[in-house]
User: Fold this.
Amino acid sequence: MITIRKAEKEDIDAIYEIDKASVPIPWSKNSIEEELLNMLAKFIVAVENEEVIGFAICWFVMDECHIGNIVVSPNCRHQGIGKKMLEALLEGTKEHMTNYITLEVRVTNSIAISLYEKFGFKEVCVRKHYYKNPDGTYEDALIMSKDLY
Ligand SMILES: CC(C)(COP(=O)(O)OP(=O)(O)OC[C@H]1O[C@@H](n2cnc3c(N)ncnc32)[C@H](O)[C@@H]1OP(=O)(O)O)[C@@H](O)C(=O)NCCC(=O)NCCS
Assistant:
């Protein structure tokens, strides 16, 4: 069974490895640790048989919830874990005075875009050269948003 719980210090290595296997420029372990202490963050992990298989984070600032990342271990994808974590983040908006949710996603990341669209996120605009690739090239970000009011 897959459970979703708050990320803890002992999850840092697993989160780091999942991120490293998934994105061109992963977070450092220090950044992950800092986010565990960030009072504005909701930082969660997906766990199966005591193994961390995904993580997600969002930040609550004023009436906005900003989704910072949602990542599933490559060998556990397309089993509904991304959806479960996104649901858990959205559940957190009920505890805050959230009016809208925003996020950035690579314009080529059609899988993530399709996940967000399933949850009612709409394209707002494109932010040019937002992501830097390890080879020095850049990729545009699609800004997506979902209104809650
Ligand atoms: C994006 C990501 C988090 C989705 O997680 P997941 O657990 O695989 O997603 P789910 O199984 O919950 O699927 C949710 C939806 O995503 C889309 N999706 C997932 N895998 C897909 C695939 N292989 N092909 C096409 N669409 C896919 C579908 O719309 C799916 O809905 P459906 O099951 O009704 O078809 C995962 O692919 C991932 O970790 N990617 C790398 C990190 C990343 O890009 N994160 C987003 C940062 S903005």
User: Anything to note?
Assistant: The chain has one domain: 2-147. The mean pLDDT is 97.
